[in-house]
């Protein structure tokens, strides 16, 4: 019998499906994007607000599937008082709760924006994540369509602020128009709410699956390439024909007061945006815009990028939607027992960043790697001196770090600095310390010269890209050398 104890199995490091680790470059790119978006929103007079990641599940709205454990579409857990809480599905429903809870203190119209993570408990796939960032702007308390028109104009201005002029269009429709179509095919009333939502979500996939795919989703359902089946709305052939005729814009117009009212509002929006100088190439009325969420009650809009990209099948397709929104007059009212008009839109930050990467428009605001202060001696006095150099550089606004590794070999420290892409290395050994000097090694220039020098004698003679200065002149010389490197980069880019 073997009495040896089994070694405990090592914990496997696994990233959960549908989630990603974000790199420094991605984080900085998103920060830069968000700053530009925020600048536009601020210019329109909107102010920031922030809501928590969790909400009580019932506050997220009836558009979420009902279940004994309400985690279809959202991630949910039970609180210690036996109430269901869910990670927020979007940023709009939490805002509605916030407005209702603080209604007496809020100045209407309430114009706010916020960026944050949202979570979807859905099947992950290529480009489809369970956690992603949105950036929303909303106006609560303004009933007129001028508020919706302003949202469309702000969305257009945001796209242009991100360098996408001429490569996007904001498409606008009205949910009342399509609700009029649904009324005309017998899907009016609360009894048909579930089927209406299925129809809305089917049409929202028009740009992804085309008319044929939507037709399947309006009928019995659609099987994707992986074999997964999505149940359809179960409409009859005449009902499907009416919906497709509306989408094809072949002159189909139902005799519905709701349809007429919706078209009138679209005419007003179009007049307002045209008067403000936004032509059809920037803001366009488009009956195929539906939006998949049930809470929209009026105008709906999407920002679509129009440049081509190659999809997973190698086909050339337009990039598509990077954000959208609309009027949701019933969402705040659920908490209030009185009508509270609201409109807003949401930008998919992660998707928009992918688009800007495709176009090479993330900018060249690359953060310079830190200057590395090498550690030549390891007694407390020496370490304190190296730390003083590092802090002096930092307090002068220069990014710097003191070498913290275990390697005592100077060459290994330079290899570390090279892997960090450090522009400069600061060196002070015993000889320099005795003279009150410090060596500054230009690692960028040194790398260039190393390709031109062929023997050790020439290398020693060149003292490759290294200068010696008094300690008191360290900051000024580092700045001078960093500026020279920046000018070299600019010349190479130009």
Description:
- The chain has 494 residues and is α+β, with helices and mostly antiparallel strands.
- The protein has two domains: 24-53 and 88-359, BirA Bifunctional Protein, domain 2; 371-493, Anticodon-binding domain (Rossmann fold), CATH 3.40.50.
- The protein is built from 16 helices and 18 strands.
- It has helices at 24-43, 92-101, 145-161, 175-184, 193-203, 206-218, 237-247, 257-275, 333-336, 349-359, 380-395, 410-419, 430-435, 443-450, 456-462, 474-493, and strands spanning 47-48, 54-56, 76-78, 84-87, 110-119, 131-140, 168-174, 221-223, 229-231, 283-285, 299-310, 316-327, 342-348, 371-373, 400-402, 424-427, 437-442, 466-470.
- The strands form four sheets. It has an eight-stranded mixed sheet with strand order 1-5-6-13-12-11-7-10. The protein has a five-stranded mixed sheet with strand order 15-14-16-17-18.
- The chain is elongated.
- The N and C termini lie far apart (75 Å).
| CATH class identity of the largest domain | Alpha Beta
The percent range for helix content is 25-40%
Strand order of the main beta sheet, please?
Answer: 1-5-6-13-12-11-7-10
Tally the helices: what do you get?
16
How big is the Rg?
30 Å
What integer is the average pLDDT? 87
Low-confidence stretches: none
Name given to the CATH homologous superfamily of the largest domain:
Bira Bifunctional Protein, Domain 2
Shape summary: elongated
Strand content bin:
15-25%
Tell me the span between the first and last alpha carbons.
75 Å
User: Judging by the overall fold, what is the CATH architecture of the largest domain?
Assistant: 2-Layer Sandwich
Main β-sheet description: 8 strands, mixed
The tally of strands reads 18
Class from helix and strand fractions? alpha+beta
For the record, the count of structural domains works out to 2
CATH topological fold name of the largest domain = BirA Bifunctional Protein, domain 2
Subunit structure: Homodimer.
Family: Belongs to the class-II aminoacyl-tRNA synthetase family.
EC number: 6.1.1.21
Binding site for L-histidine: 90-92, 120, 134, 138, 291, 295-296
